[in-house]
Amino acid sequence: MRRHWSLFATASRYALIGHSRNRFAMLLVVLYIPVWIALAYVTIPDRPAPFRLRATGEVLNPPGNHLTQITGALNAVTLIAGFMMFAATFTGGAFDRRLAMAGYPRHHLVLAKLSALTLVCAAIAAYATAAAGFAWSPRQPLMLAAALFCAALTYGALGVVFGSVLRREVEGMFAILMISIIDVALQNPLSSSGSDSAVVRFLPSYGAVQASMSAAFSTAPVAEGLAIQLLWLLVAALAGFMVFRRRTRDALPPERKRRAPAYTPEPGAVTERVRPN
Prior knowledge:
Layout: H1 2-20, H2 23-43, E1 51-52, E2 59-60, H3 64-101, H4 106-132, H5 141-165, H6 169-185, H7 206-217, H8 223-247, H9 254-259
Helix pairs in contact: 1-4, 2-3, 2-4, 3-4, 3-5, 3-6, 3-7, 4-5, 5-6, 5-7, 5-8, 7-8
């Protein structure tokens, strides 16, 4: 038990160190979230923006700037979480593969990445909730933070997928950026006439949008929206685990490894250490 805990703690430490070295992402967390939310509050008119919440059928009538702050917070947390996990997976893929081929248990590596992702998304969601509620108070702040947290986790898992299957960094960044913008923009009642369309039910953050809108502007339960988002999270996490397992697979198939004879040096033989160039 102690050995498993030691392996998990070591992998978690390296995962968190990798995130902390992503200074651009840290800058986005510290500055982008409050600046974007503050600009939405200042520049968007506070006229009421009525819309029907699909999850409950309730007609909400929040101020337009408050509504844009919530969608802006969702867009910010999904972008940042997706960027951070994509960067960590893309740059650390070779290191993870070497660890797995050297015998480091994959389950410990996966659990460490999930733990780091959970801590990062919890911090981002709490920070975004505090920034959104600085000038006004959401009706259910804890449920709003939970919705932002689930959305960030979903995009973090998608970042792992993109970081494992895409070959160039710009491809992953562009994919995450476009998916997040299209996803949230189509569900914003203030900017999209299609926000009441049935098509939006298939977008990655649909459950989080429904839950966050309900939590911010009403006292209705948000369980349905969170359940939908957790389903998206489960699918994204499963895809991330599959591509991570495939990326860290051994170089030799199991049957070839069983047939390969183990090398044993003869007595008195001198082994030469190869120095890196």
